[in-house]
Amino acid sequence: MLRRGPAPLLGIDISSTTLKLVELDRARDGGYVLQHCAIEPLERGWVAEGNIEKFDEVAEALRRLVRKAGTRTKNVALALPGSAVITRKVHLPAGLSEDELEVQVEAEAAQLIPFPLAEVALDFCVVGPSSTAQGYDEVLVAASRKERVSDRQGLAEAAGLNPVIMDIEPYASRLVARRAIERLPKVGSRRLVALFEIGSQSTALQVIQDDDMVYERDQPIGGAMLTQAIARQYGLSPEEAEQKKKLGAGLPADYPQTVLQPYLETLGQELGRALQFFFTSTPHNRVDHILLSGGGASLPGLAEAVTAQTGFSASVLNPFDGMTVAPSIPAARLAVEATSYLIATGLALRRFVP
Fold first, then answer.
1. Any idea where the SHS2 domain is (predicted)?
2. In Å, what is the CA distance from 74 to each residue of 38, 57, 67, 70, 154?
3. Which CATH architecture fits 10-82+147-174+328-351?
């Protein structure tokens, strides 16, 4: 009767432009509750291509983020970019003990990883019985250079936090997408859903089928392109243009037609091009739905523009859909920022979902 639930956990996403924090809880009815969330901007160059270049500055920004969120939780889940992690599924005999699995995984990893195991942080999990080899289990192996892991661990510790989970960004994104996919009409197995995460400099595509990623690709277009267009058109500094873009206010009356609509059309064309690469490199020739998230997905009219350019139905993925939101979180701020919390929400969900 006194059994305690999972310990509180912060999901913290480290990107090239911001730090983002999400903390979730569960209501008595089993639904999720958004307890805390916050975003802290980073200066250009502090984090580049997933590498922490200015450790002290980012650590101080992380301390500000935690204070801004108003949380007392210390345990955190972090993530590495997909490009920093090698993942493979291998088949190993079923029924092995944990120690036997470790030995077998290390032997497999030595064949898969192009650098010495002494330089590698290695982990694995048993996915389930193999569908192709009777008497074997399918095991997911993940490996990254130790310094990539230790940088993030050290960053959390420097901010007074306790790193307990190191995830992979695309896996955290898919955890949130799973909830959205379950709410789509005509739920069924083997459905293909394209998840686009629109960031500042690039857009990441994952095509998902039954929780598995069947394809991924980065497209070199993001929200920074719109910021630059606003700055050029109206003679603003990049900082002023970014602020006005996020607020969706303070721009001239011709902004929707002169700047925003051409950008949405270009973005839709680029996302369509990314899907064409998927179609030409796989047996598939369509997707059943497109989900749009990331910081660049909050623009009005985006889903309609993507549908028009690709021919497939699209919708914006709000990570907090279906959740109860704590009264302390301003609704107006959340309406602007929600799509930015995709990865941080997936990390926060690790408190409840292994």
1. 9-177
2. 15, 20, 12, 12, 14
3. 2-Layer Sandwich (3.30)
* Model confidence pLDDT, tens digit, residues 141-174: 999 999 999 999 999 999 999 999 999 999 999 9
Q: How far is CA 146 from CA 85, 150, 153, 156, 237, in A?
A: 11, 6, 10, 16, 39
**39 vs 29: CA distance, rounded Å:** 29
Residue 329 burial by CB count (10 A; 0-12/13-18/19+): exposed, middle or buried?
Answer: middle
* Tens digits of residue pLDDT in 40-61: 999 989 999 889 999 999 999 9
Pair 323, 33: CB distance under 8 Å: yes
Give CATH for domain 184-316. Answer: 3.30.420.40
Structure tokens at 172: 């955290």
Architecture of the domain delimited by 83-145: 2-Layer Sandwich (3.30)
Q: Domain segments of the chain: what residues?
A: 10-82+147-174+328-351, 83-145, 184-316
Closest by CA to 164, choosing from 20, 9, 307, is 9
Q: Which pTM was predicted? A: 0.92
Q: Which two tokens stand for residue 90?
A: 């291998």
